[in-house]
Amino acid sequence: MGMKGKLIASMEVKCGGHLLFDIFHTNNHHVPNISPRNINNFEIHEGEIIKAGSIVSWKYNEGGQQMYMNYLVEAADPENKSITWKLIEGDLLELYNYFNVATSCDHQWTTWTYEYEKKSEDTPEPSFT
What we know:
Residues 2-128 form the Bet v I/Major latex protein domain. By secondary structure, the protein is mostly beta strands. It has helices at 17-25, 31-34; strands at residues 3-12, 39-46, 55-62, 65-77, 82-90, 96-106, 109-118.
């Protein structure tokens, strides 16, 4: 059994948390514009907007390499401006048995929570950089 962990970060966002949630929820084609050096592509494969059951893929840069991941949206709550994602495919599954992400937005703040299980002690801790 691997080592389980949880990483939580809250960040102030100048645009307001409600706008950040809106980008992920209904205007996801703008996600690569937020950080074009890090995120190359964000696409919904199932569902028209982010809602429970949607399948979403990301292509991103990590350490100079392009990587990908597919997430299942487990929950999306527009009223509370939160989304819960479960990794179902991608490069991270080579290092982690599971990797889940929860996002929430409130006023000028957004909070990201990573829950994961490392496959070995040598697996690096995830970070928000």
